[in-house]
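new request in #modeling-help
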Amino acid sequence: MRAFTHAPLPQRVVFGAESLGRLPAELDAMGLRRVLVLSTPGQRALGERVLALIGARGAGLHAEARMHVPVEVAEAASVRAAALGADAVLAVGGGSAIGLAKAVALSGSLPALAVPTTYSGSECTAVWGLTRGGAKSTGRDPRVLPALVLYDPTLTLDLPPGIAAVSGLNAIAHAVEVLYAPDGTPVTAIMAEEGVRALAAALPRIREEPRDAEARAEALYGAWLCGTVLGQVTMGLHHKLCHALGGGFDLPHAETHAVILPHAAAYNAPAAPEAMARIARALGAEDAPGGLWALAGRLGAARSLAELGLREADLPRALSLATASPYPNPRPVTEAGLAALLARALAGEPPL
Ligand code: NAD
């Protein structure tokens, strides 16, 4: 067995149907008395519900979160938190709301808390992101890691199956890259494989029956596992490509992950046979790239970058963005290899 260093992040996780009801007691146990609730405008009703639930412990609701955390949005939330004398920020919603809570935590040292309603996994990482003038910068800071994460699968019952599908594939992508990461450990491998298994089992059931509470719980459990390992190891080619395409062409986050994942897995397959065997086993498929491609198809997820708005004329810039400051990857990344990968992903052809 090869040597490893395992460094889990300090975070309290509460999981279970109807566990939202435990939030007031959790805040009391942390000594928090003026919590500012953050959400996107679309999730305002949930934000209001949470604010009512926490009663006198609530400082207010700020329902202004936006995808990729524009710096002006972050500054406005920090100003609001200071004006209200908030002692913590609580994100309710997906990665956009959680990203805003992290940005406030970064600028003012208030603790961040999260009640996630998608499978992005951002709540499990100490990575923050901010967008200034269209350019996204990211960094790692222990202060932005949510101190408390409360997962209540009943809050995800209304997450539209189409969003659940791509968000779930986004989570699976974290686990896939964990399995071949240079700093992965035996524990992150077990969690990643179980995360893929849980999501691959649950997502088709959600597509068939969106209000299947057991499937919703299993998907959120899988997302937690995938997010947790994302927070502990270094990502590779797949995440590099998705960041380049998301940042450079404003492609939608989760959908881009859904399209790229089978192709990135196929690219890395020759250099990461053990990881591919574990992914295939978790998917119940013969091979990992084919299994990921089939799962995306079964879920009705986007399978081409063209569907997301990328054009053939964009490929040279996409290639140069994707090859700049590369992430560690099991197979050396060559321009020719990446060009072929992007061409197939653009056209929606199966992975090679
Ligand atoms: P999101 O938060 O924008 O949510 C996606 C959509 O789902 C939105 O339209 C939202 O209104 C809707 N939605 C969320 N919960 C819902 C519910 N329960 N019912 C109905 N609709 C619901 O996007 P996301 O995919 O969750 O997160 C993407 C963002 O997170 C990106 O900005 C990405 O960069 C960031 N991210 C960061 C990290 C990190 O470690 N820092 C990790 C993953 C993602």
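bot summary: The domain at 12-156 is CATH 3.40.50.1970 (Rossmann fold).
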